[in-house]
Design goal:
The chain is an alpha/beta fold and 687 residues long. The protein contains 26 helices and 16 strands. It folds into three domains: 3-243, Rhopdopsin 7-helix transmembrane proteins (Up-down Bundle), CATH 1.20.1070; 257-408, 2-Layer Sandwich (Alpha-Beta Plaits), CATH 3.30.70.270; 428-686, EAL domain (TIM Barrel). The strands form three sheets. The protein has an eight-stranded mixed beta barrel with strand order 8-9-11-12-13-14-15-16, surrounded by four helices. A five-stranded mixed β-sheet has the order 2-3-1-6-7, sandwiched between helices. α1 (3-33) packs antiparallel against α2 (36-61), α1 (3-33) packs parallel to α8 and α16 (481-501) runs parallel beside α18. It is elongated, with a radius of gyration of 45 Å. The termini are far apart. Bound molecules: ligand C2E and magnesium ion (2 copies). One magnesium ion is lined by residues 574-575, 595, 631.
Length: 687
């Protein structure tokens, strides 16, 4: 064997060994990182290993076997096909890497089949005898080297350009190795086709093989670095995402309360150092809950997002904005020169929010109530600034909404109390702090108890027993009334049904309804469910609606009442005479009972006007076939009057104040052990 032949055999086998090593490295990386392009690159280097190995053995065999020997042909064919498959897989992998997705299976198959055929055809057409360095063989080798150079060159360029590939050292090393391997092939080609060059370069050909080795090692190393960099980037992205979720509001993307408090803390620090002012603006959308209830939550979400965007674009870049939850937002404005500055900013925000918002083709107008608190005048820590701004916002709401208010320390004790009450109110139901008191409704003709009205009380942990006028309107405003009202309904129905089961089977439950409950889309469903749960017959439930609520109701509220009435539930107009309604307007309502307000009852029988009004209502009720109840009857003369006027029923302190269930039970059952209905002493006295 000549020395050059021996050298090329050893060189090819060494190249094959290195290619196997690289294939093993890529295969390992593939299993670890699962990048699809690594599979094709692994195949590509296996292809190279087969190509170089088969080529080397073929040259070795040429020493002993003739060129027509099938073993030599087979080896040459394997080397030729593997050499082109190497290119095909290299292109497929690089395409996958730079495009971010696999080529279509059809295209891949075509490429693989086409290059396989090309490799085989070139072997058959241009001879397979590597030892014969004639022109045909040289041509065959040159064509393949050019194809490899092209594949590496284009691949390297694509890798350097692909925008979606993470930039870093690893990527650059891989790219440089690709380009280097491409240039190597071109060098080999020029050596093959220019004998003069080969002659002068001869001794350094071995060095070229070494460069090849370095480039391969660089490629593998670069890829490892690249994958590690990608992994690090992915970890950092995930951490950033987690931080975003933890410190931002998902709906609007604004910082959440915690982040806002941090930002506010930094702003205060800055203001303290530079001796400047800071303002906290607390915003609450007016009547947002109505939009949410009537147009649905999706519309409510769009509304909140729009409002968030408008606030964001109204304030300066360095001011922070947060959504505190629900329809509440806050702004921290830094470097405020004077209180007027803050008020002006507040007005700009209110104006921005007030612009019509179109949702589902419907124009909405949202107003905002806004409270301002200033550092250092009103408070000097973030939480207190927020609290005082909130208290100022409450005053703005009380002023009639769509208003800006500054924090005023003395005026706000009430608002702070209110705030405190409000936050407790949200949990009153869960904490089991609500109580029902019961007041009997008495039939005038017999003195028997025919109904029981449930009166809500709140057993507040620090303030003691609170009456409805201390918390119902607040519960209305915050929406807490809905769960509270359901609790009242369920408890009252269950209690009255228990008394009915024990013999008071004519008893009805009278339950007061608030506006919110009346407008609630699920009112009918809730009532039906509670009746089913408690087994109270529909006809034994009377829902009381004050006259003023009835007058303001329309649409859904009236439909709900009609639907309830169709199911047998009774409807009563409470506090009649206080709502300035004409009785004819009330005819729109499906009414069973009218309750004369106690403000008229108080003047009966001495005050002739009150007496005349009461008498007229009773007459009207009787002609319309509606049950009339006099409420707030305190004295025997009053009862006397109502009995004489043939007012069907009454209730009042004359019999008893609203009492606990236990006391009410005594009234219901103690007077007569076997006769359910009772004849109260007060009633007998009046007769
Ligand atoms: P209302 O429905 O007109 O209830 C009658 C109110 O008059 C009760 O006050 C009752 O204690 C009081 N009262 C009864 N007899 C007399 C009397 O002879 N003289 C005087 N001066 N007062 C008498 P309360 O319990 O403070 O309730 C006030 C209002 O709060 C109720 O007026 C009702 O509108 C509302 N309310 C009570 N419970 C509930 C409830 O569960 N839900 C809703 N939405 N409102 C409720
Ligand atoms: Mg009532
Ligand atoms: Mg009343």
């Amino acid at each position: 064997m000549t020395q050059p032949t021996l050298l090329s055999v050893v060189g090819l086998l060494a190249q094959s060994g290195v290619a196997v090593l690289i294939a093993v490295v890529f295969g390992g990386l593939l299993r670890r990182y699962w990048r699809p392009y690594l599979r094709h690159w692994t195949y590509s280097w296996i292809g190279l290993a087969v190509h170089a190995g088969a080529g080397g053995i073929a040259i070795l065999l040429s020493q002993w076997f003739p060129v027509t020997h099938p073993a030599r042909f087979a080896l040459a064919l394997a080397a030729g096909i593997a050499g082109y498959l190497q290119i095909a897989w290299l292109v497929l992998g690089t395409g996958e890497l730079t495009a971010g997705r696999a080529l279509r299976p059809r295209t891949s198959r075509l490429l693989l089949a086409g290059l396989t055929l090309l490799g085989a055809a070139l072997v058959v057409a241009y001879g397979w005898d590597a030892s014969r360095s004639d022109l045909l063989f040289t041509l065959r080798v040159t064509v393949r080297r050019l194809a490899v150079a092209l594949a590496f060159g284009v691949g390297g360029t694509l890798i350097s350009r692909a925008p979606r590939i993470a930039r870093g050292i690893g990527r650059r090393v891989v790219m440089a190795s690709f380009l280097g391997l491409g240039v190597q092939q071109l060098l080999f080609v020029s050596l093959t086709i220019t004998p003069s060059l080969r002659a002068s370069f001869g001794p350094y050909v071995a060095a070229l093989g070494l460069v090849d080795l370095v480039l391969y090692v660089g490629l593998a190393l670069g890829l490892v670095i690249w994958l590690l960099e990608e992994e690090r980037q992915a970890t950092m992205d995930a951490a950033a995402r987690i931080e975003r979720i933890a410190y931002h509001d998902g709906l609007t993307g604004l910082p959440n309360r915690q982040l806002f408090i941090n930002q506010l803390g930094m702003a205060l620090h800055h203001a303290r150092r530079n001796d400047t002012m800071c303002a906290v603006l607390f915003l609450d959308l007016d009547r947002f809950k109505i939009v949410n209830d009537s147009l649905g939550h999706a519309a409510g979400d769009v509304l909140l997002q729009t409002v968030a965007e408008r606030i964001r674009s109204t304030v300066r870049g360095e001011d922070s904005v947060t959504r505190l939850g629900g329809d509440e937002f806050a702004v921290c404005a830094t470097d405020v020169q004077s209180p007027d500055d803050a008020v002006q900013l507040a007005e700009r925000i209110i104006t921005a929010v007030k612009r019509p918002i179109v949702i589902d083709g419907q124009e909405l107008f949202v107003t905002t109530s806004l409270g301002i608190s200033l550092f250092p005048q009103d408070a000097n820590v973030p939480e207190d600034l927020l609290k005082t701004a909130d208290a100022a916002m409450y005053r703005a709401k009380a002023q009639g909404r769509d208003v800006v208010e500054r924090y005023v320390p003395e005026a706000d004790q009430g608002a702070l109390d209110q705030l405190d009450l409000e936050s407790n109110l949200q949990h009153a139901v869960e904490l089991d702090q609500l109580m029902l008191f019961y007041q009997p409704i008495v039939q005038s003709s017999t003195g028997g108890i025919t109904g029981i009205e449930a009166m809500l009380r709140w057993n507040h942990p620090t303030r003691g027993l609170l009456m409805p006028d201390e918390f119902i309107s607040l519960a209305e405003a915050t929406g807490a009334i809905v769960p509270m009202g359901l609790w009242v309904l369920r408890t009252a129905c269950a209690q009255v049904q228990e008394w009915r089961d024990r013999g008071q089977d004519q008893l009805r439950a009278a339950v007061n309804l608030s506006v919110r409950q009346l407008q609630h889309p699920d009112l009918v469903g809730h009532v039906e469910q509670i009746l089913a749960e408690t087994r109270l017959p529909a006809a034994s439930l009377e829902l009381e609606i004050t006259e003023s609520i009835a007058m303001r109701s329309s649409g859904r509220a009236v439909d709900s009442l009609r639907a309830l009435k169709a199911r047998g539930v009774r409807v009563s107009i409470d506090d009649l005479g206080t709502g300035y309604s004409s009785l004819s307007a009330l005819r729109l309502f499906p009414i069973d009972t009218l309750k004369i307000d106690r403000s008229f009852v108080r003047g009966v029988p001495e005050n002739t006007d009150d007496s005349a009004i009461a008498a007229a209502v009773i007459t009207l009720g009787n002609t319309l076939g509606v049950n009339v109840v006099a409420e707030g009857v305190e004295r025997p003369e009053q009862l006397q009057f109502f009995i004489e006027q043939r007012c069907a029923e009454w209730q009042g302190y004359l019999l008893v104040r609203p009492v606990t269930a236990m006391e009410c039970e005594k009234l219901l059952f103690d007077n007569s052990s076997d006769e359910p209905s009772t004849l109260p002493a007060a009633h007998s006295a009046a007769l």
